[in-house]
Amino acid sequence: EAQVTQNPRYLITVTGKKLTVTCSQNMNHEYMSWYRQDPGLGLRQIYYSMNVEVTDKGDVPEGYKVSRKEKRNFPLILESPSPNQTSLYFCASGPGQGYAQYFGPGTRLTVT
Amino acid sequence: EDKVVQSPLSLVVHEGDTVTLNCSYEVTNFRSLLWYKQEKKAPTFLFMLTSSGIEKKSGRLSSILDKKELFSILNITATQTGDSAVYLCAVCTGANSKLTFGKGITLSVRP
Questions:
Q1: Which of these, A16, A29, A109, lies nearest to A68 by C-alpha position?
Q2: A58 CB within 8 Å of a chain B CB
Q3: Minimal Cα–Cα distance from B30 to chain A, Å?
Q4: Using CA atoms, how far apart are residues B74 and B7, in angstroms rounded to an integer?
């Protein structure tokens, strides 16, 4: 089944404890992206990648890192999480520039 | 700054009604406009529109884009309770294919 998977789906952590949210897609998509969704603010792009080893900042990149060493994987790294990073996170992938993006199931992160 | 505005913010209808959801945008370097449906989980893709005046249709849902007036509408006919969801409009722009989302429209369909 063609899909985008994320792990973990739920995470509660404490301020400053490094964490990684994994994202993987099995559709051979070139384009991958991370979004966060917050009440009243909607979905906002954090980082995106147009291909392996090519990543760039979205609208809200502060406090996040990404890497794209393989085409299928695009992990999101929070080196020192803070409470304002409590949010619902979505990974998405698409065939390439200008094509639709397909979303993973989401990761609900709480930072205390 | 790219901007996508959806209206109304929410609406309540009864089964069988027809609804029209609106999306207007002000962006630079437009590539496409997309509609998604979100039901307490991940957004699921509905339509992508790139050309003005060409209707996209899937069952009871249809959508059209007006690139001159910078808006799109999503129509749902003969609504069902399963249509209850948040409908998101997003505009894809630039060489990086960034998606800028509107805040969404919450549709509630009552039996």
A1: A29
A2: yes
A3: 9
A4: 11
- B chain contacts of residue A104, beta-carbon cutoff 8 Å: 42
CB contact under 8 Å between A98 and B45, yes or no, is: no
Tens of pLDDT, residue by residue over A53-69, are: 999 999 999 999 999 99
Strands B19-26, B71-76: parallel, antiparallel or unpaired by DSSP?
Answer: antiparallel
**Which among A45, A99, A100 has CB closest to B98?**
A45
pLDDT of residue B93: 87
CA distance B80 to B108: 10
Quote the CA–CA distance of A21 and A33 in Å, as a whole number. Answer: 13
Given pLDDT bands bounded at 50, 70 and 90, which one contains residue B1?
A: confident
CA distance A5 to chain B (A): 11
In chain B, whose CA is at the least distance from the CA of A47?
B98
**CB-CB: which of B41, B44, B97 is closest to A98?**
B97
pLDDT for res B36: 97
- Give the separation between CA A33 and CA A60, rounded to whole angstroms: 12
Amino acid symbol at A18: K
